Amino acid sequence: MSLHTVTSGDGSREFCFVHGFTQTGKSWTTAAQAIGDSINTFVDAPNHGESQGISLTLQETGDELADIAFGKILVGYSMGARMALHAAIQHPYAMTGLILVSGTPGIEDDAEREARVQADEELASRIEMIGTSAFIQEWIRQPLFAKSKFSDEEIQDRCKNTPTSLATSLRTCGTGQQESLWSQLQEIKIPVLLICGTRDEKFVEIAKRMNQMISGSTMRIIDKAGHNAHLDQPEDFAQAVNWWLQS
To answer: Does one domain contain both 9 and 94?
Structure first.
């Protein structure tokens, strides 16, 4: 069973977008439209949106994305960035470019990663206990999303995900489940753009380190933006992408 995708737009460039945890492919619409001159494929990640009921590991998701995004620029945000990174490492020449927004190659320390597995399990149990709507309200109030605004439409879209699906996503594709990819970053040969927001200090430092390790990669830090930089400042995000493509 393949992941659900929707393709729209008309242009000379082709992108494939993968969203973050609790979202759906629809969350990328505004940012993608701001880029312009593009044909856009929006993916519902495993256990999200119309892909609920499809459970894949990060490695399996990487294989699936490489097939969907073949010949395209693959764009991933947060959880989607981790999935996209797997695709690029597992299939080095499938995509023509890679854009990672607030992404990480994983946790290097074994003890720290095991602690994250336990934290993800507690979070999964929390979702199952209180339900999606209540959990989404807790999720978007994290310091990670401080000063970010969430429309009613976006919250409603996130609430389409069932508690079981979101809990399963954490148990199969949470950060704790990801093996560290830091040592494999040097294997990436396609052009890479790393994007993060100025308010997301942790991921700014991660992006700086990734930039040093991925040959020929480019980094752009978006002002007045947090973890979901492409939602906080979609126009600035689009300018960063178009600047990168032109350079």
So the answer is: yes
Tokens, residue 238: 């689009």
What's the structural domain count of the chain? 2
* Dist. CA 238–CA 242, nearest whole Å: 6
Measured distance CA(228)–CA(214) in Å, rounded: 22
CA–CA distances in Å: residue 198 to residues 2, 57, 60, 151, 231 = 36, 31, 32, 22, 14
What's the domain range around 144?
111-171
* 5-9 sheet: strands from edge to edge: 5-9, 38-43, 13-18, 73-77, 97-101, 192-197, 218-222
Same domain, 89 and 188: yes
pLDDT of 1 > 80? The answer is no
Least Cα distance to 48 among 147, 143, 154, 167 occurs for 167
Could you tell me the pTM of the whole model? 0.97
Residue 185 · residue 138 · CB < 8 Å: no
